[in-house]
Amino acid sequence: MFGYVLTRMIRGRRQLNQMHTRLDSVQAESRRWRERYQSTIRGLSEAIQEQFEAWQLSKAEAEIALLLLKGLSLKEIAAVRTTGERTVREQARAIYRKAGLTGRSELSAFFLEDLLLPDPEAMIDRE
User: Fold this and answer.
1) What is the dihedral of CA 100, 116, 30, 15, to 10 degrees?
2) Are 73 and 85 in contact (CB under 8 A)?
3) Which of 4, 22, 32, 108 shows the greatest Cβ crowding within 10 Å of its Cβ?
4) Is residue 104 situated within a structural domain?
């Protein structure tokens, strides 16, 4: 019995070490990506903030809109902002109304749709 438990512990430890190694690798890759595209990221962040201003979002609404774009749930946003989930839900509705959008997916698509289109020149080269 002891041998079985010890074997399981050793395997678990190896798996944990592999997961740590993978996490370190992913974090390093993420860091390199952010460094490489820092000016693009900064420009996109500024463009998003400008659009929030054009929609006349309050400071709280702009913060919530950004967290929605980052993929946080309403419950997670409420926890981050130390407010009620119902309040966040109402603020999200106000964001969508001011932006003329129907919900979270349209909010994301508003900013990401053109970024994710294939390069038109690359499409021509394939033909």
Assistant:
1) 100
2) no
3) 108
4) yes
Q: Does a structural domain hold residue 9?
A: no
- Above pLDDT 90, what percent of the chain? 69
Better pLDDT: 41 or 115: 41
Distance CA 83, CA 87 (A): 7
CATH number, domain containing residue 84: 1.10.10.10
Paired tokens of 19: 């997961």
Q: What's the distance, CA 85 to chain centroid?
A: 19
- Single-letter amino acid, residue 24: D
Residue type, 58: S
**Helix %, strand %, coil % of the chain (to 5):** 80, 0, 20
Task: Please give the Cα distance from 6 to 120 (Å, whole number).
Answer: 58
pLDDT at position 6 is 82
The answer to whether 62 touches 92, Cβ cutoff 8 Å, is no
Query: Is the pLDDT assigned to residue 124 strictly greater than 80?
Result: no
Domain span at residue 91?
Answer: 56-117
Any domain includes 38: no
Number of domains present in the structure of the chain: 1
Q: Could you tell me the pTM of the whole model?
A: 0.68
